[in-house]
Amino acid sequence: MRWIRFAVLVCLATIAQATLSNYNLRPDLLIILVVFFAIYNNTTDAIITSFILGFAADLIGITMGSQMISFGILGTALSYLNHVFALRKVPYQVTSIIAMTILAGFCTNILNSLKHAGTIEFSYILKTAIFSAIVGPFLFLPCTWWMKIKTHRNRRRY
């Protein structure tokens, strides 16, 4: 894993996410990155990146800690699920992004309600999930290029 490139990518995504927070319809770039790193990295790196991306989401969020816990647990589960299913196909990526956005929204709402903080409406979570699923697979290609991840192996042809 190239951690300096990862740090730059997280900083850019966090700034873009904070900039997009003024708009009603926006993708959740940090969830898209959680899904990306859970699919294209090994399990250890995926767990570390999930918690770091959750911390970045908490920095621009309502409360501290709720998204880090949600992203970390769900990113870990998706990383282990990647060993069972081949999640590198686009329909599976879209489904993963929708499921992760909805589950992270629910987990964050539950943790925020325990702190007596504000919660997010389900319709907003659903709109964000759908828009993230549309944008997400298009962001995977630049992310694989930036992180220098090889998606195909060279095969010998006889």
Summarize this structure briefly:
The chain is mainly alpha-helical. It has helices spanning 3-20, 29-40, 43-59, 66-81, 90-114, 122-146.
What is the strand and helix layout of this fold?
Blueprint: H1 3-20, H2 29-40, H3 43-59, H4 66-81, H5 90-114, H6 122-146
Give an account of the 3D structure.
- The protein has 158 residues and is an all-alpha fold.
- It has one domain (27-146).
- It contains 6 helices and no strands.
- It has helices spanning 3-20, 29-40, 43-59, 66-81, 90-114, 122-146.
- α2 (29-40) runs antiparallel to α3 (43-59) and α2 runs parallel beside α4.
- The longest helix is centred in the middle third of the chain and has 25 residues, at 90-114.
- The radius of gyration is 15 Å and the shape is globular.
Residue windows where pLDDT falls under 50 for at least 5 positions: none
**DSSP E strands, number:** 0
Distance N to C terminus: 33 Å
Write down the overall geometry.
globular
Number of helices: 6
Strand content: under 5%
The topology string of helices and strands comes to HHHHHH
Helical content band: over 70%
Evaluate the radius of gyration. 15 Å
Mean pLDDT: 90
Specify the biggest β-sheet: none
User: How many domain units?
Assistant: 1
Structural class: mainly alpha
Keywords:
158 residues; mainly alpha; 6 helices
